[in-house]
Amino acid sequence: MQRYLPDPFLFVIILTFVVFGLGLFLTESSPMNMVQYWGDGFWSLLAFSMQMVLVLVTGYVLASSPLFKKGLGALASKAKSPGQAIILVTVISIIASWINWGFGLVIGALFAKELAKKVSNVDYRLLIASAYSGFVVWHGGFSGSIPLTIATEGHFSQDLIGIIPTSQTIFATFNVIIVLALFLILPVLNRFMHPSKEETITVSPELLEGSSNLQAATIEKSALTPAEKIENSFIVSLLVGLLGLAFLVYYFVNSGFSLNLNIVNFIFLFLGILFHGTPRRFLESVLDAVKGAGGIIIQFPFYAGIMGMMTASGLAAVMSEAFVSISNEFTFPLFTFISAGIVNFFVPSGGGQWAVQAPVMLAAADALDVSYAKTAMAVAWGDAWTNLIQPFWALPALAIAGLKAKDIMGYCVVILFVSGAVISVGLLLF
User: Which Pfam families match (predicted)?
Assistant: First the structure.
């Protein structure tokens, strides 16, 4: 697998031309049409790209603070063997991703790094793959964009399906069973994938430490210039941090425990400012963090271009309709799940994918008399499922870990097939 999987940037270039070709052969689009769709969509994910950069940067900054490192280290110390480390990081990642997908992406990778420092002879590639594996549950959890969208007044499909509460999606019996099954199966699966001692690839704990000396503020106070005194002032960080915490109190009082990507980044950012103690330590941590953001910054516009071609050409609808044509009332949720998994490879955004697939899938569900809620969750699970082998979503975790996609992809493929079987059974039988 490592020999044949290209760098994620080359992968997205190859994917671009694959979608371009499919658009020409499977739709009525001309080459110039496809070029236009690609260019029109290219910058459509700029805001989201910045959010993902901040997922990486704020998560790294928080984790590199002395207090947070101590907490993660204490939890990592509970693992006494490589097998326990793999199980623990998988469990933490699943729980965190179920609560909020951005939180899960960052915490899983950061915790894996702490485990690598504490536990000897644990395979670092599998550790990071296990941390990423928990991400598969996100769309069945509190931050699932599709179930939250159809539970919101004024969503674009409301005229057809009305408002569907989360009691019929996130907290539906079939969805809870799928999440619990993955919670039990994935840690065991990951544990048994650990290679033999001879084939284990470890990493030196020293290499996992930040390159900057974040505790280097040991200059004599009398030697500091007025500007340096402000940069090294705890009072400045305290005031800014308290301002951020005041807004969070206001937000949660008025909105309840409603997490989104902006709020998660906000929490991480201001906790990072507080926990680092001084603006100088905080900024040095930020400088370390942004070194790993290059892949996100460059690749996300190309994925946006792919999304533009998929949606504007009608290619995503063609793929969806192909699966609808071979479905019946019993198999429809399964084929919806599989089609969503395929479409997700080209439209790796839950909200964007729902906009593309909802008109086709909901009309088919109506014709086959299949639950709208289950149809929506089948799309949601398909979207989450193939994220396991989609470098788009792995980029923040890989940047934190200092690995490439090919380092973890072999493990992720195994997890993909096993989790796909679990989700399929859940959609068919419950």
Answer: SCFA_trans (PF02667)
SS3 for 201?
Answer: coil
Q: Is residue 246 part of a domain?
A: no
- The pTM (predicted TM-score) of the whole model is 0.81
Count of Cβ atoms closer than 10 Å to residue 262 Cβ: 12
Structure tokens at 118: 């504490």
Give the DSSP letter string of 81-129. SHHHHHHHHHHHHHHHHHH-HHHHHHHHHHHHHHHHHHSTT--HHHHHH
Q: Note down the domain range covering 133.
A: 42-208+291-311+396-429
CB under 8 Å to 12, separation ≥6 — which residues? 299, 302, 303, 306, 391, 392
Q: b/e string for 235-244 if b means 16 or more Cβ within 10 A?
A: ebbeebbeeb
Query: Are 362 and 375 in contact, with CB atoms under 8 Å apart?
Result: yes
- Determine contact, residues 175/169, Cβ cutoff 8 Å: yes
First to last CA, the chain: 35
Q: Is residue 382 part of a domain?
A: no
Please provide the DSSP assignment of 163-193 as one string: ---GGGTTTSHHHHHHHHHHHHHHHHHHHHT
Considering the domain boundaries, does residue 16 fall inside one?
no
Structure tokens at 276: 């680092």
Give the chain's domain count: 1
Q: How far is CA 52 from CA 8, 55, 94, in A?
A: 16, 5, 19
Kindly indicate the confidence band of residue 63, based on its pLDDT and cuts at 50, 70 and 90: confident
Question: What's the confidence (pLDDT) of residue 3?
Answer: 66
Nearest to 59, CA basis, from 111, 118, 119: 111
Q: Residue 44: is its pLDDT beyond 80?
A: yes
Residue-wise pLDDT for 252-274, tens only, equals 999 887 767 688 889 989 999 99
- Cα 229 to chain centroid distance, Å, stands at 39
Largest Cα–Cα distance of the chain, in whole Å?
78
Residue 95 included in any domain: yes
User: Which pLDDT score is estimated for 232?
Assistant: 86
| Euclidean distance between CA atoms 89 and 194, whole angstroms | 13
Measured between alpha carbons, how far is 272 from 16 in angstroms, rounded to an integer? 37
Give the pLDDT band of residue 218 (cuts 50, 70, 90).
Answer: very low
User: 378 near 360, Cβ under 8 Å?
Assistant: no
d(CA 122, CA 99): 27
Q: What is the pLDDT of residue 11?
A: 82
